[in-house]
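User: Fold this; tokens only.

Assistant: Input:
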Amino acid sequence: MNKNRQIFSYFLLPITCFLLVLTLGFATPAPALELYGNFKQGGLVIGHEDPGFEAFLDNIPLKVGPDGRFVFGFGREAGPVVTLRIVYADGKVSEQTFDIEARVYDIERIDGLPPKTVIIPEEEKIRREKETAMVRTARAGSSNDLDWAEGFIFPAEGRISGVYGSQRILNGEPRWPHFGLDIAAPVGTPVMAPAGGVVRLAEEDFLLEGGIIIIDHGFGVTSTLMHLSSVEVTTGQRVERGEVIAGLGATGRVSGPHVDWRINWGPVRLDPALALDMDALEF
């Protein structure tokens, strides 16, 4: 038997989502690594292997659950390749390099805007620094919860008014890319938890975000929901997928009522639209 033989099976799913089954042939019973998700910029990937291994993404250690599940993702400019390394308890190593699909993002140029609409005034910078520090702290945890593996749902019913990766150039100055999925609807429309987890931040009046909630889904995966008209949960509260947690609004710096939903894997900003395509997985 060729000990280096590798067999890959791909099952295509909508929106480039796929299940990849990787089997490495050895003289002893072969381990079976499963990867499900999007190997593209903004994508989320969930993996599973029989317990008793360590996983590394480009030499960064990944958190592995007691049942052998793990998760990782790719930012807006990720690529062109990524290497996943699995180290088994018996010393065997599986290493595979994957191509990361590049994406083309919408770029919009707007000139002639009043400076106060694109620049934070000096008197508000201290407030802004405090708020961004609170957001970083809320996203910095890495609990052992596995809510991310149960799949995500839309947090509200409405029209998609903004997508991940788009960017505006205001008065000739590039602004931060948009890292969320915007859902427009009337003020007060129920906003639901897109996945279960623990609320790490619940505030009603941030300068740019307005009403904001951050939910910890475990393993560094968080959801952020912004521009809320009402916040109906508190920090530390456990919420379940589909539970109403807020009202949709037009708070903060917005041009109309909507909820801006963002997903992070640690500091890596993911595309919620790609995560929506991943339902509960029965590994």
